[in-house]
What does this fold into?
Amino acid sequence: MNIKPGFTPLFNGKDLSGWIGDTKYWSVKDECIVARSVDRLDRNLFLWTEKEYSNFVMSCEVKLLGFNSGIQFRSTVDANGFMAGYQADIGNGCWGSLYEERLRGVVVPYKPDLVEPILKKEDWNEMQIFAVEDYIMQTLNGVVTVEFYDPPGAKKGLFGLQLHGGPPQEIFFRNICIKEFGI
It folds into this structure.
């Protein structure tokens, strides 16, 4: 694993300790969390942290071999495993946008002119999420794709990884780490 200096791992690289989800779809391989569907899924599936987080910068690398995924943050989960809350979007026509799963939908839209030149399709892309009080910023491969002030938005919640409903696909997450800020 390649964890950034000053950051704490959210994933140990060995198993899904500290995370909750259906191991039929979520596993660990080569120090990566892997989400895989082999048949069409009729709903979104999630893997989420046991712990909530408030003010932070979170960093990870993601490789998408499919069409859509996302990183939930400051989110909740219900008894059926459905997550609601902010999502750093990953996928065709949405990379780098800010979505709010099961709530407001698209909050900050996809910017193709900004994203397409920096996106590494079917390869590793670095994503960072900054969330401090009302301020949210996302970067994709070092380029700011979202900068948003959201006073009514959630101020704490779980992290989650999404395996989007639809055709079979595979998503890899590695070097997932966080730096928390006490405010």
